[in-house]
Each structure stands twice: as structure tokens, then as C-alpha cells.
């Protein structure tokens, strides 16, 4: 994967540090005034931390009876517990060759890095952990989930340092392979953010559905405007970055541009449909928009919505009286 900091050339390490610092400052400004407090745990239920006891009331769960206190006092007491507040966030970042594309102010790989940073910083407090799986290289990159700002920046550095590609990912390093690997490295329920352009049809849709069954998933779909509309600039040499195939096309042809736009729109709808069908939340980011504000707004609103109401799974397991 990426080289350790000590083995990097000093200018490269300084450039990376500057990029990550600018990104951190930009996200911090966007977060100003937004709700970024503690998160409810994804381990639903009353929690495991003891927080006192109270007298038994009709309807209390018999499993919560404190038998030692009951025997000493002669009255029935039940334990009170405090819900776990820790949140673990995993980012599955696609860094395949198709992400090294951009015709606006930045490339798709820059948007992917920024989205990973924004979701991470929204959870970077209160003992929450952040981990990364990096797909798209010869082998899968794995940065274990850890607490603290230093660990968070180290995980982002792994995404930043992923090399540009001129070929398809290795067999075990595709986006689908990363999604299949995730339940092995993180079996407990957590927040998962999948960041990709989803252009490589390697079976990611079925793998995403399996992840959604056990985790709370956001799929971040990164695009560039030239993927959806072809400009009229004469003869173009078009290269598939992952296969190396090259073709020359006459972009001034209205018919060609119309067919291109129709095919691109259909592909975009198909990707959106497959993500929606998996049950993951969908966020679309483009290199020609203020993608950082879009990301922070989406993540903050998603966080507030989770705090405001219990999920369907909570209601199913604990009834309508359950709290978020």
C-alpha cells in the first residue's frame, strides 16, 4: 500500500501534510454551528454500563432485576443502565484508475478524499473510532479502526497516498472485494461509508446489499460532468483508464453527443437504482459543485435524523416505546 511517512521524500510528506491540513480546516469551517455531538451506539438496546438502580415497576424486564440488592433490601430492584455512545465508522474508499479523472476544479479522487475526511470528522470525538479499507490497487489496503486525531489523519493519509493507476485493480482489491472483506474486519454493527464512482461492474451491488444487512451504510457516488455530457470540441482521443483501450471520436456530431448523454444518464440511473435497491443511503457528489458543503450537510442531517427517531430495527426489537 502507501509508503510509511519515514520512507517518503521530505517534499512529498510536506505536501501531503499541507493537503490534509487544508482539508481539515475547510471541513472544520463547514462544521461550525452544526450538531456534531456524541452518537448513539449502533448496538441497539438499553446498554451495558451500570447507572444505578430503582424499584421494580410492572412491565420491567425481569432480566434486569438486581438479585443481590433485592435480597439485601427485601424489595425488588432493577438495574439501570447507560446506553453505549461509541460509534465506529469505516470508510471503503475506491481509488481505482477511473477515480483519477476530472475536468472541473478537482479530480474525483480529491472528492473521495474530502468525503472520507468529512464523515470522519463528524464522528471524531467521544472515543469514536475510524478505520479505512482502500480498494483499487494491486492489493487491498486495511487501516484498523482507532481512536484519536492522529489515527484519523493516518487513515486519511493512506487514502491520499494511494498511487495513480493505469490498469484494473488486482483480483482481491476491487470494490466488491473490499465490501466482502468488511464484515470480517468489523463484525459488529457500525457506520460504513462507501465512496466510489461505481463504474466497475465487479459485483459491488450484491456485496453492498450484504453489508447493509449488518451495518448502517452510506454510498457516496462521485462523478465528473464530462462523464454525463460530451463537449463539442472536435476529434477526441478517448482512453479507458482501467483497460487501456483507446478510440477516436468526432465530438462535434450532435447525434453522437445525444447518444452519449442518453447512455450516460441511463448508467447514472442504473447505479442510483442499484444503490437504492441495496438499502444504503445515497449521496451524489460532483467535481463541479461544492461537494464539501454537500457532504457535511448530508452527514449532519443524517446524524440528526438518527438521533431524533429510532430505526425500524429498534422498533421491531424493542417496541414503539424504544428511544433512539
Keywords for this structure?
324 residues, alpha/beta, Rossmann fold, six-stranded mixed sheet, two-stranded antiparallel ribbon, 9 helices, 39% helix, disordered C terminus
Give a structural overview:
The structure is a single chain. The protein has 324 residues and is an alpha/beta fold. The protein has two domains: 5-33 and 85-297, 3-Layer(aba) Sandwich (Rossmann fold), CATH 3.40.50; 49-82, no CATH class. The chain has nine helices and ten strands. The strands form three sheets. A six-stranded mixed β-sheet has the order 5-4-3-6-7-10, with helices on both faces. A two-stranded antiparallel ribbon has the order 1-2. Strands 8-9 form a two-stranded antiparallel ribbon. Helix 3 (108-121) links the parallel strand 3 (88-94) and strand 4. Helix 1 packs across helix 3, helix 5 runs parallel beside helix 6 (204-214) and helix 6 packs parallel to helix 7 (254-278). The longest helix has 25 residues, at 254-278. The model is unreliable at 1-11, 35-45 and 309-324 (pLDDT under 50).
Beta content comes to 15-25%
> Rough shape?
elongated
Task: Characterize the largest beta sheet: strand count, sense, and whether it forms a barrel.
Answer: 6 strands, mixed
Q: Measured on Cα atoms, how large is the radius of gyration?
A: 23 Å
Helix content: 25-40%
Task: Give the distance, in angstroms, between the N- and C-terminal Cα atoms.
Answer: 39 Å
Number of domains: 2
* Helix count, DSSP H or I runs of 4 or more residues: 9
Number of strands: 10
**Low-pLDDT segments:** 1-11, 35-45, 309-324
Q: What is the chain-wise order of helices and strands?
A: HEHEEHEEHHEHEEEHEHH
CATH topology of the largest domain: Rossmann fold
CATH homologous superfamily identity of the largest domain = von Willebrand factor, type A domain
CATH class of the largest domain: Alpha Beta
Query: What is the average per-residue confidence, as pLDDT, rounded to a whole number?
Result: 79
CATH hierarchy: architecture of the largest domain: 3-Layer(aba) Sandwich
Amino acid at each position: 500500500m502507501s509508503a510509511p511517512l519515514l520512507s517518503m521524500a521530505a517534499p512529498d510528506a510536506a505536501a501531503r501534510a499541507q493537503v490534509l491540513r487544508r482539508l481539515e480546516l475547510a471541513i472544520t469551517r463547514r462544521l461550525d454551528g452544526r450538531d456534531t455531538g456524541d452518537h448513539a451506539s449502533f448496538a441497539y438496546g438499553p446498554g451495558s454500563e451500570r447507572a444505578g438502580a430503582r424499584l421494580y415497576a410492572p412491565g420491567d424486564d425481569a432480566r434486569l432485576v438486581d438479585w443481590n440488592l433485592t435480597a439485601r433490601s427485601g424489595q425488588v430492584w432493577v438495574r439501570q443502565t447507560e446506553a453505549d455512545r461509541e460509534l465506529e465508522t469505516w470508510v471503503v474508499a475506491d481509488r481505482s484508475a477511473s477515480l483519477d479523472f476530472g475536468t472541473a476544479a478537482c479530480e474525483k479522487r480529491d472528492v473521495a478524499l474530502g468525503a472520507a475526511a468529512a464523515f470522519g470528522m463528524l464522528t471524531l470525538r467521544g472515543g469514536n473510532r475510524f478505520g479505512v479499507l482502500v480498494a483499487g490497487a494491486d492489493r487491498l489496503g486495511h487501516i484498523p479502526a482507532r481512536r484519536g486525531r492522529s489515527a484519523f489523519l493516518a487513515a486519511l493519509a493512506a487514502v491520499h497516498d494511494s498511487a495513480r493507476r493505469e490498469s484494473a485493480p488486482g483480483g482481491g482489491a476491487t470494490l466488491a472485494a473490499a465490501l466482502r472483506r468488511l464484515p470480517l474486519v468489523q463484525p459488529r454493527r457500525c457506520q460504513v461509508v462507501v465512496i466510489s464512482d461505481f463504474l466497475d461492474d465487479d459485483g459491488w451491488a450484491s456485496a453492498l446489499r450484504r453489508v447493509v444487512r449488518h451495518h448502517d451504510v452510506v454510498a457516496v457516488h462521485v462523478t465528473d460532468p464530462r462523464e454525463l455530457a460530451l463537449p463539442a470540441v472536435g476529434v477526441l482521443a478517448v482512453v479507458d483508464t482501467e483497460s487501456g483501450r483507446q478510440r477516436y471520436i468526432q465530438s462535434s456530431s450532435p447525434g453522437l453527443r445525444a447518444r452519449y448523454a442518453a447512455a450516460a444518464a441511463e448508467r447514472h440511473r442504473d447505479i442510483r437504482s442499484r444503490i437504492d435497491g441495496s438499502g444504503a443511503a445515497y449521496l451524489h457528489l460532483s467535481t463541479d459543485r461544492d461537494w464539501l458543503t454537500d457532504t457535511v450537510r448530508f452527514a449532519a442531517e443524517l446524524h440528526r435524523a438518527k438521533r431524533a427517531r429510532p430505526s425500524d430495527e429498534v422498533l421491531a426489537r424493542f417496541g414503539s416505546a424504544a428511544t433512539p
